[in-house]
Structure formats: structure tokens, C-alpha cells
Amino acid sequence: MMEALVRMWKWLARLLTRIRRPAKRVEVTKGPRDSDDIPQKSASGLERPGERPTNTEDDEERPSGVEQGTAARDQLDSDRQSERPSGFLSLAPDVLAKTQPLGRRRSLWLGVDYGTSMSKLVITDYDFRDGTRSFPVRPQNGGGQHGDYRIPSTLTLESGAIRFGVEAESHADAAEGVYRSMKMLCAYPTRFYGDTASLPTGLDARDLATLFVGHLIQLGEQAATRYANGLGAEPSFGITLGVPMAQLDDEGLHGMFVAIAREAFKLRDKVDLLHSVAIDSAIDALSVVRKELKGNDPSEPRDWVRSEAEAALFWAHGSPEIPEGRYACVDVGAGTTSASWFHISGKQLGDDFVKDRLSFYGAACAPPGCDAVDAVLADDLGLPSRAEVREQEAKLLAALSDAGTDALGGVLNELAGVFGKASKEAFEKEKSLRRWKGIGRVFFLGGGSKIAAVRDRLTQGREWLMPSPIAEPGVPADLVEEDGEELRDDPTFLLVAYGLSRRLADVPDTFRPSEVVNFQPEHRKKTRLSHEDLYGN
Length: 537
Fold this sequence. Notes:
The chain is α/β, with parallel strands linked by helices and 537 residues long. The protein has 18 helices and 18 strands. Strand 7 (154-158) and strand 8 (161-164) form a beta hairpin. The longest helix has 28 residues, at 402-429.
């Protein structure tokens, strides 16, 4: 009996000890972070798509007790704000109240819109208290001032070193070699309309494209670090690169751009591409990352590369101003014209209608683009470089000779032909003029579509689409400047990068033309009635 009482007493003592002991920390992940799409930290502190994050030493510094309790979190946030690191962003009080960090690590995603002539970057903060916040990356000049969010897709060679982007464009006059439109040269070498120059020894167009995407990613890393450090946190993020939709169905081009995205992301750990890099260092770094990635294919390529059309329409799909229905989209870029015809659909959930699907019925992407328009203008007007024509097209078109006008007409016909190819493919999916005549709107994207002559030719001969208005999707509610202020510039050129800055788990179900089956309703067959059918009882 006594032994039983002793055992009971010991059991009660252990129970009381457990009750008094503080609860063990339990990591709680919820919301968008509860997904296999969340990246994991690499050696450099960034994260890679498709892998879950792990605890860091910083996590151990959090207060014990209930995980992320309100009082503890608010006190931690207050302490961080009182110990601002140098270079802290000067945020308005109302903005600062909404950007208090949820932890020491800030979960960010970088959308990379690698353009033929201009590139754009957008970062989305997934730890923003009210949901998400996105902002464009503006490379900083020597004085620390933010510049244009449009980054020249230019590389230059000078004294055995390669420069990128803004610095490359500023040194173009004194450079030994100027390389523009490398994206086009590696994708469509036989239909290249840009200025030609001998490539650096040991590097081809794909190498230069990979190095430039690496430069863009490092610009994004720099901005992410600045932004996160200003909030007392460390950045961790993944990236998505945009590719024309029609190229996703081209196995060779699709594979090439997935490889470029992965190699460029891995170059962060090997070489500094923010300003300039020696040719030998660039060649060595490319060789190392390709050897490390050889045979290690990604489980989900869409973690790395997604369609530019799909990305551009992310906001339109979510915007309450855009109802379900059929639409068209034309993106006249520098090197190619991309066109797509698509259907936004959804379903009824209780009292609400929710848009949940984006189906592309037809898509086409091919040269030429605005570079071909620039080539006609430069040749006809005797200008030494096509770069001098860029963004001056509307003004220079009036000075074209008759021969130049004829040449331009041929280019515009080719642009319209790409749009026509996409529309023909869409019509094959559902052969009904009645269905397509009621198309909602036509979205025009890209710098080339702002040229009146281009827009006029694209709509010419398709009067049956009209009077459908040209769509203006507006500005996404969460797209602001890095400091939280209202976006300063035209958001039109940012919509692709904005859509790419969303993780795969957050984009609507999207179906490419190859995944949409032809809709051919079965017609009732007429049968000849027999004598018995006509006169029988």
C-alpha cells in the first residue's frame, strides 16, 4: 500500500512540474507560407523555389511562450523599430504601422520581366500585415537616388569587362562592343533585327542572356535586402522569369529559358554581376553553375518560368472591373509580337461569383516587334543606330519616304499576322462567330502598342471585334513604391513583372492552348421518316 502511495506522489510531482514549466516553442506556419512552393534558404540567405523554409538562429531569439503572441510580437516590433539599422526607409507613420515584421525573416518573391530592350522587376512582400504589398525595383545611381524602373537590357564590353543595364547604357558610346536584344538573338537568331556586334570571345548570346538575368536577380536581391533590413528583418525569396506563351509549347525554347533562370539564380553565389565582371570570371562562373545543375532537373518548371501573357493578366483576372468573358491581348515588344485569345471563367460560391480559371484558346509569338519598325526608320532616315530611334517612332514616322512607308507597311502586316494566327487558333477551338463576336475587350501591352500606326493596323480588318473598347486594367491596389508611397509612373509596363512576382500557389488555374480541347457541339442528325412513322397509329 505504501509503495503505491509513493508511486502516486511521484507521478503527481512530475505532473505539477510540467504544469509550471513554460510551453515548448512550436513553429506555426499559416497562410501563403503553408505550401511546398515556399523556398528554402541557400548559403547566401536567399531561398529557392519548391522547398520549405527551416528555422534559423534568429528564430531562437523570439520570446518563449505562446508562438507569436500579440503582446510579445508588438513588443518585439517596437524594439526593432527603436533600433533602426542605417539606411532605414523613411516610411509614413500610417504605412509603417502596416509593415511591422511578423518575424526576423521577410518572405519576398521577385518577378523578372526580361525584355528585349527594357526589363522590369517587381518584388512582392508576403509578410505584409494586410495581405501583400508589391513594389518595382528602381536601380540606384551613384548618389543613391532611385531611377527609372525600366532597366535597359544592354550589355557592353570595355577593357575585358562586361557591364550591365543602366551602367552599360551610360558607357555605350565609349564601349568596344554594345550588345542589345540578346534575348532575341538566342531565341530567334535568324530573325534578329537589332544592331549586330561581334560577341566577346568565349561567350555566345545565351551566355550573355544568362549573365544579364543574373544581373537582374542581383538587383532584386539588393533591393530586397535594403527593404527587409529597413524593417529589421532578413530577406528570403524566390524568382520567376517571364517567357512568351507560345514559347512554352516549344520544347527547345522552354527548356532554354528554364535553364537560363536556374543558372542566373545560382550565379549569385559565384560572381558579382551588379556592376561589371571580367570575361574570364564570367566564363568560369557559368561553367561551375552548369556543372552543378547538370542532371538536376526541376520538379516543377513553372516555379521558374511562367507565361508573360498569364502574368500580365494576373491583375485583370483579379480586378473587380473585369468580368468573366472572352478577351484578346496583344503585346508588341521590341523583338517579338505576342498575341493571345483567352476566356476568364469562374463559379458561384454561395452569394458570390469567384473567377478561378484562365483558359487560353489561341496564342502566337514571333518576330517582328518594334525593333523591326526601328530598323525601317533608321535605314530610311540614315541614322547610325536603331537605338536612336527607340521611343521616337511616333514623331519620326511622319518623315518616312515612300519607300520607307512601303517597308513599314510590310512590317505592320507581319505584326498583324501574329495577331491573326492567334485568333485563327482560338476560332478553331470554338467555331462560332456568335460566341466570338461578343468578345469583351482587347488588352494592348508593350511599348510598340503605344504607336498609333501599330494599333491601327492590329485592329484593321477586325471590325467585327468593335466597338469593344481597348482595355485599361488600371493599377493594382497593392502596387506601390518601395517606401509605400503611391506609384509614380505609368503601371502599364509593370503588369508582367507584377504577375510574375506571385508564387505559383497564388495564380489562378491556367490552361495553355495545347491544354484546351476543341469544342465541337454534336448536332442532331436528321433522320428520314418511314411510311409507318408518317401514317401509323
